[in-house]
Automatic annotation (TrEMBL):
It comes from Herbaspirillum hiltneri N3. This is Gluconate transporter. It comes from the Bacteria. The chain crosses the membrane at residues 17-34, 40-58, 70-91, 111-144, 189-208, 239-260, 280-301, 313-334, 346-365, 372-390, 396-420, 432-457. The keyword Ribosomal protein does not apply. It is found in: Cell membrane. Keywords: Cell membrane, Membrane, Transmembrane, Transmembrane helix, Transport. Signal peptide: none annotated.
Length: 458
């Protein structure tokens, strides 16, 4: 790898910043896994270690942490709370059981992981990963319990399906931004995205889940597991159709918003309606209210009991919300310290194949910032001038390579890492072995497939 004169801009501050980030990440892992400090406090301390090492004033570190934590809790926190309420309603009413009972008619034993991957692909198509996880959680827990399968064998295919869609396929924000920045064709990108996604989901999902589950036995976490335990006898459960409508309602609403942005004229009544109801927080609020009526009041459940179900959903996720907020604070502090600029200096000073360069830039930015969307957006902006002369097909493959790089080895500065850890009751080592490895498989398979298609379609 040869460095150009562009790397001359590298300064001692860049080296100091990278070392500070490395020391902070090691400190966070040691604080949580060795000293058993709560994740929220460990990440907060790690943020100050990184910020101080990078030369930021203490008040600026605190301000960045508050801004990042508030930003992510402002949306992801509300989404998780609404999702927990919806999950509790679906579990308590028996709706989740009804869906699982129907799925078990078509898939048993070794076929269950494949069924879960397919369900996650359908449910997760228009949803942010955080929304998809809170929607799938009751199905994952009930399916594992009813089928007597290890929970990781059921969960990993669902996680793989959702993260692959988030990385590779519009209408997710990262891929859409990359398509726009690189002037790629949306239809071509979606078609090639499905081609790339299929082997990624298979390898990172059912196959990896079936390999890992017996080697890392995980029991059902007590608090979250109790949240998704149904209270209704089979004869008292709602029908399959209202249960299915409940879980698919936010999917349809958010997909409608995407359709509006792509194909409907802005500032028309239809556009405004679809855009409003497809906003994730609005879509989930509408779905929770729908579930209150259809799965609660409409079936004769008293207002007092429905209110109790909604309230019991919130205490188990309080620690999760604080941890996710801390992850957002760490990410913002690193961005304030200039980590994106440092990574860009390295990337632009190298001479390697264009598609591999794009993937590596996205990988580096994801490791530094903890955000797939930030990594995709920044990388697309960096490489856009270099791909102006490429064909629409090759620009589509560039967008997919960037998306694949943006999900490489998620770790402690990402909200999704902590969501998976807390939802499934994992320790740090187990979370790395599940979530981080799932994303790495998706990322590497995505790169391999885009390189293959690049050669085939050249």
């Amino acid at each position: 790898m040869h460095l150009t004169t562009e790397i001359a801009a590298w300064a001692a501050q860049d080296t100091r910043l990278l070392l500070s980030v490395l020391i902070a990440l090691i400190a966070i892992v040691v604080l949580i896994s060795v000293l058993k400090i709560a994740p929220f406090l460990s990440i907060l301390l790690g943020t100050f270690i990184a910020g101080t090492g990078a030369g930021l004033p203490l008040e600026k570190i605190a301000s960045a942490f508050s801004k990042g934590a508030g930003s992510i809790l402002g949306e992801a926190g509300i989404i998780i709370a609404l999702g927990a309420m919806l999950g509790a309603l679906m579990a308590d009413s028996g709706a989740a059981d009804k869906i699982v009972t129907t799925l078990l008619r078509y898939a048993r034993g070794a076929a269950i992981p494949w069924m879960m991957a397919l369900v996650a692909l359908v449910v997760g198509l228009p949803l942010f990963f955080e929304v998809g996880l809170v929607m799938m959680a009751p199905i994952i827990f009930v399916m594992a319990r009813r089928s007597q399968q290890p929970i990781l064998r059921v969960a990993i295919p669902a996680l793989a399906g959702m993260t692959t869609l988030h990385a590779l396929l519009p209408p997710h924000p990262g891929p859409l931004i990359a398509v726009s920045a690189l002037h790629a064709d949306l239809g071509t990108t979606m078609l090639l995205g499905f081609v790339v996604a299929i082997p990624a989901v298979i390898l990172a999902g059912p196959l990896y889940g079936m390999w890992l589950a017996p080697r890392m036995p995980i029991g059902e976490p007590e608090q979250i597991g109790a949240l998704f335990k149904g209270q209704q006898a089979p004869e008292m459960q709602p029908g399959f159709l209202p249960s299915l409508i409940t879980i698919l309602l936010p999917v349809v609403l958010m997909l409608g918003r995407t359709v509006a942005k792509i194909w409907i004229t802005p500032e028309t009544t239809l556009f405004e309606m679809l855009n409003f109801f497809g906003e994730p927080i609005i879509a989930l609020t509408v779905t929770v209210l729908f579930a209150v009526v259809v799965l609660g009041w409409g079936r004769g459940v008293s207002r007092t009991d429905v209110g109790a179900i909604l309230r019991k959903a919130l205490p188990p996720i309080s620690g999760l919300l604080l941890t996710i907020g801390a992850g957002g604070g760490l990410k913002q502090a690193l961005l304030t310290g200039g980590i994106s600029d440092t990574i860009t200096k390295v990337a632009t000073g190298t001479h390697i194949p264009l598609i591999l360069l794009a993937w590596l830039i996205a990988v580096a930015l994801r490791q530094a910032t903890g955000s797939a969307t930030v990594a995709t957006t920044a990388t697309a902006g960096i490489v856009a001038p270099l791909v102006a002369s490429l064909s629409g097909t090759h620009n589509a493959l560039m967008a997919l390579a960037i998306g694949a790089g943006s999900v490489f080895f998620c770790h402690v500065n990402d909200a999704g890492f902590w969501m998976v850890k807390e939802y499934f009751g994992l320790d740090l080592k187990q979370t790395f072995a599940t979530w981080s490895v799932i994303q790495t498989i998706v990322s590497v398979v995505g790169l391999g497939m885009t390189l293959l298609l690049w050669g085939v379609l050249a």
